[in-house]
Amino acid sequence: MSDPILFSVDGGLARLTLNRPTRLNAFNADLARAWRDVTTEATSRDDVKAILLDASGPAFCAGGDVLDMATTMGAGSDIADLAGVINAGIRALTESAIPVVAAAHGTTAGGGLGILLCSDYAVVGARSKIGSLYANIGLTPDLSVSAQLSAAVGQRRALQLVLQDRLLTAEEAKEWGLVAEVVSGVDAADEADRVRERAEEIAGFWLAGAAGAYGQAKRLVRSRPERSFVEQLEEEARSIGASFDTPDAKARVAAFAAASMKKAR
To answer: Which Pfam families match (predicted)?
Structure first.
């Protein structure tokens, strides 16, 4: 049996690939535990400077595996426990100081929306569809959807998505601010490849630059709700001071100053 998540680290980039393609990468217990384990490892490794989330098969993530719920889950407490396992991985990504890019081709729905929202920069295909759909089967949002969707698109739009069975088109998702870029392909398979390639370019941009600074910038924005305005200003001041003392920043600041002086002559 293949691993429910494929995990690799190369050149500072950790790639996490959801790998239940025949179930549209919907979460069962095995995928939930693998998700928790690989996200925890990726965010705790010193050699990881950027993370890429993608998926095998025709879709990014269809949320929870409803068939598995119906046949193996005896009570709501089982569902809640499974959500708790997945939530550990969501927290690992969102609370880390490592930027995350998602390559989300195909459909993203239900809890898959929460997985998409774990990313800090999302690339989707022109054929992609994104929605909530929880209420269609009598369930409520989980996996951070109610926590992160409003922050991403605003409360009114979040309500539109969770109170209807609407699937946003890729362009609508971009217009709403849910995703950053839309990539086209000649067919679905080509489009998926192009989405991954563009996500790799984004990660490569971070890695080629001041990766640590990008990570800290992500942390500042993500953690803002924990602090008052004054506390956030203090944290910004502390963070930029700490960044200035890093070898990377010292080299880049010196190079910028030298180039500026040369230009001024």
So the answer is: ECH_1
